[in-house]
Amino acid sequence: MWEQQLVNGLVSGGVYALFALGLTLVFGVLDILNLAHASVFMLAAFTALLVVDQGIPFPIAIVVATFVAGLLGILLERVAFRPIRDRADSNLSGLLTSIAASIILAAGALAFFGPDAYRYPRGSLPDHTFAFANVRLTALQLLTLVLSVVMMVGLKLLLDRTSFGRSIRAIAEKPLAARVVGVNINQTIAGTFFLSGALGGLAGVLYGLLFNTMTADMGDTILLKGLAVIILGGMASVTGAAVAGFVLGLVEVFTVQGIGSEWRDAVAFGVIFVILVVRPTGLFGLRRVREI
Amino acid sequence: MILCRLRPPETGGRLRRRTTQHTTEGKTHMRARTNVAGFLLAVTLAACGGGDGTTAGGNDEGSGESLTLGAMFAQTGDAAIFGESQINGVRLAVEEINGDGGVDGAQIDLLVEDTGSQNEQAINILQRFINQDQVDVVVGPTLSAEGKAVAPIANSAQVPIIGASWAAPTGTTDVGPYVWRVALTDGQNIPKAVEAAVERDGYETAALLFGSDDPFTQAGGQAFESAAQETGIDLVAIETFAAGDRDFSSQLTKIAAANPDALFVSATGESTASIVEQARQAGIAVPIVGGNGFNTPTVPENAGDAANGVIVAAAWDASSGADNPTNAAFIEAYTAEYNKAPDQFAAQAYSAVYVLAEAARLGGGTGREQILDGLKQVENVDTPLGDFNFTEGRDADAEPVILEIQNGEYIRFES
């Protein structure tokens, strides 16, 4: 049973981590909490559903929806963040425009899809369950685990090893200096938003696949967890967000297992609170925020 | 001349209605209004029926005045799967009653609002209903939580309010004399469902999973606990979840390890089907006994074969049409109007309108006090739920039917 709970925790932790990575990237580069991230999460889940509804196999739907979510990220940057980027108060006004964007997107989804919950057509998803020892792992859970780890490692490599990654880190460090050494600011920020949207979108698609219930308000719950994860991870730390995502997932399931399900959120957030008291910068945050 | 309410006093045929729909912040508000012809008719027949056209307080006297009915249900949010059926049920009943000449000649003027499954919004709507629209009676809201939020307000404003789906045993009708309900509570339903299931299958142990942050699902959880006690069932695991949760795997893993003979679930909205589906995924193959949240065809629709073996006590049974012609007529009319079969929530909301219409007849008018007076006298109203009566505590006086989901259908539970 403990092994099964470990799997449960890793699967939900993987989704939390993916979602939080998108938040972290944007926070690292622009110092803005992009609350519209939750709407990208939701719209990507619906996009995957629409693709599958056309009779297209779900693996393709995952790719398409993730890409669309990336584009949505670029659009958000262009519409909600770029116009106010040069304001002195851009972190606060950015937060506000992200809330506005979030409301617009959620309202649009509500107008288009209505309040009903949507589900994938029966039979369009694999229902295979692997059982070994005491553990049952559905094909979708396995896919979620694999994809989330692959994306995290890929993101880390991209940031550390590519020139695009270096540009992102340079802007995170000091935008002016980055511009001086020839980093294309607009392009790099747009690229960051593509990555961020794609990560949040993939999280949404996987969440939709795992629990097979898509509603226009499905981003609300994950947003709170995503915020907790990036705070725990150290705000702008990619490694921190990834690790903290799994920590939150595991703390949740083991609270249910060991203490009781009514304590789940209390303990999960309590643990975050204690960690932050002991280590105010979060798990992987540096004392002075040196981003990404 | 005192301005009378510009509504047709008596129309022989069905009153045509125009529905305007506008969207604010994604929430849909609908309001039915009498059309221009209706106004002209009213102006032409400026006699204003027999009444003297009082405008305030909804205290219209005598026949010929309209009955303003404020209906509020969750058209958006988590409980939208119930709210849609309820609105359909209410609209159908109002159309039928108005088509048959209204309540002793008074047409029902229907206002419909969306609570968004949220208490605050329900309170705002109720206040608008009471103070601005001057409604005579309110039907709704959908959730027990919303009901608890609005019941004290309606009661102190002395406006009769009828719950069509509140299943939490306490917190609504016990608030005061103006609060009524046609729904059976989970205090009435759950013990019967558990009793029937235990009698047939002889469980010794069970696990309980319930939503702990919602008055309805929590009351259901308590009802299951006491039902288990009474039937001598050992609850080997008691787990909770929070509203909005989609992932129940850790709770269900724990339950699966406890290896119960049955799973009791008190949940509502979208979580019902997800729990059933994930329970089967976690390897829990035993029967699931559910609370009122499972009384909607969306459960078998969404959970598919996983829903087989779900047992639930219901206030309404589609198959009772054979011995209840009113129910048969309701099912036919509803299906013709909306192209889908009604569920319990539609039947209850539809019945609520007939009950309040009967109350207005018995009370001798469409004013708030007259309807309240009539509600006290209601006896054997012919509804799809059967001959309807209230208990002393203003709850529905009826026995639930026990249903079991088999191959996507709710069938009578065979003991």
Query: Within the largest sheet of chain A, what's the order of strands?
Result: 1-2
Please outline the major beta sheet of chain A. Answer: 2 strands, antiparallel
- Count of β-strands of chain A: 2
Q: Return the string of H and E elements of chain A.
A: HHHHEEHHHHHHH
**How much helix, percentage-wise, in residues of chain A?**
over 70%
Uncertain stretches of chain A: none
Task: Give me the secondary-structure category of chain A.
Answer: mainly alpha
Largest sheet of chain B: 7 strands, mixed
Q: CATH class of the largest domain in chain B, please? A: Alpha Beta
Query: Biggest chain pair contact, residues each?
Result: A-B, 41 and 37 residues
The tally of beta strands of chain B, per DSSP, is 16
**Percent of sequence in beta strands of chain A:** under 5%
How far is it from the N-terminal to the C-terminal residue of chain A, by CA? 37 Å
Residue runs with pLDDT of under 50 for 5 or more positions of chain B: 1-63
**Which architecture of the largest domain in chain B would the CATH scheme give at its second level?**
3-Layer(aba) Sandwich
- How many distinct folded domains of chain A? 1
Cα shape of chain A? globular
What multimeric state do the chains show?
A: heterodimer
Number of helical segments with 4 or more residues of chain A: 11
- Tell me the radius of gyration of chain A: 19 Å
Q: What is the 3D form of chain B? A: globular
Reconstruct the topology from this structure.
The complex is a heterodimer of chains A (about 290) and B (about 425).
Chain A: H1 2-30, H2 37-53, H3 58-81, H4 90-113, E1 129-132, E2 135-138, H5 139-161, H6 163-173, H7 175-180, H8 185-211, H9 219-233, H10 238-258, H11 264-278
Antiparallel strand pairs in A: 1-2
Helix pairs in contact in A: 1-5, 1-8, 1-9, 1-10, 2-3, 2-4, 2-8, 2-9, 3-8, 5-6, 5-8, 6-8, 9-10, 10-11
Chain B: E1 17-24, E2 27-34, H1 36-44, E3 67-73, H2 80-99, E4 108-114, H3 119-132, E5 137-139, H4 144-156, E6 161-163, E7 179-181, H5 186-201, E8 205-211, H6 215-231, E9 234-241, H7 249-258, E10 262-266, H8 271-281, E11 288-290, H9 298-303, E12 310-314, H10 325-338, H11 344-363, H12 368-377, E13 381-383, E14 386-388, E15 401-406, E16 409-412
Parallel strand pairs in B: 3-4, 3-5, 5-6, 6-7, 8-9, 8-10, 10-11, 11-12
Antiparallel strand pairs in B: 1-2, 2-4, 12-15, 13-14, 15-16
Helix pairs in contact in B: 2-11, 3-4, 5-6, 11-12
